[in-house]
Design goal:
single chain; mainly alpha; 218 residues
Length: 218
């Protein structure tokens, strides 16, 4: 522009999410982890002043809310990228229950009724698909998915009465991360008893119960 050369930015912020040029979200995850551990260090100073329920509430506000914010953007990412977020949740669970760093965390998450990070992402994806399925979403979301039963070639097949969505083929791992892929896969993997929930609140309860059982083998 004129005599000035404008260089493109490698990372940009949009709605508090850091987007890098290759959409790896490594900068975004790193920022969340840094902020969460900072808050955990501050909350640790209060552990002798508040009870367990108050600590759980504070962690929910300052830590879990950050882990859940726009977490569907992280679907399909390798575990090496997601794992630092799980480390944050593990540290939060130990703080909430007053455990030492060496204590096993699975029992702590189960006691707190906290879904692990990957399951929280699946929960959010399926929740969005429930809104799509029940026509409670914007058109730009419903227009990128399609029911198997809407395919004219399947009208006489048993699948014509199912609630499954058609999953298009992709050629790249990057394409596999699109909502039209991961959202429909998450929905298709749910049991019919969850998909057929008659209200949003009912779906949330059934879905969390299903994920909790599958995660902790209850």
């Amino acid at each position: 522009m004129g005599s000035t050369t404008i260089q493109p930015s490698s990372v940009v912020r949009n709605l508090r999410v850091l987007f890098d040029s290759e959409l790896t979200f490594k900068h975004h995850v790193s920022k969340i982890v840094s902020l969460c551990f900072y808050q955990l260090r501050r909350l640790k100073q209060l552990k002798h002043c508040v009870d367990v329920n108050t600590m759980k509430l504070l962690i929910s506000v300052f830590i879990l809310s950050r882990l859940d914010y726009c977490n569907v953007l992280l679907s399909g990412l390798p575990m090496s990228t997601i794992r630092p977020l799980q480390h944050v949740q593990n540290a939060a669970a130990r703080l909430a229950l007053g455990l030492s760093p060496r204590d096993h965390v699975s029992d702590a998450l189960k006691k707190l009724h906290w879904l692990p990070v990957t399951h929280r992402i699946q929960y959010k994806l399926s929740l969005m698909m429930f809104l799509v399925h029940n026509h409670q979403c914007p058109d730009y979301m419903s227009n990128i998915v399609s029911l198997v039963s809407d395919d004219p070639g399947r009208r006489r097949l048993r699948s014509a009465t199912s609630t499954d969505y058609h999953i298009p083929r992709t050629r790249t791992k990057f394409g596999d991360r699109a909502f039209s892929i991961v959202g429909q896969k998450a929905w298709n993997n749910l049991p019919q008893s969850v998909c057929s929930a008659d209200s949003l609140d009912s779906f949330k309860r059934k879905h969390k119960f299903y994920l909790f059982n599958s995660c902790f083998n209850v």
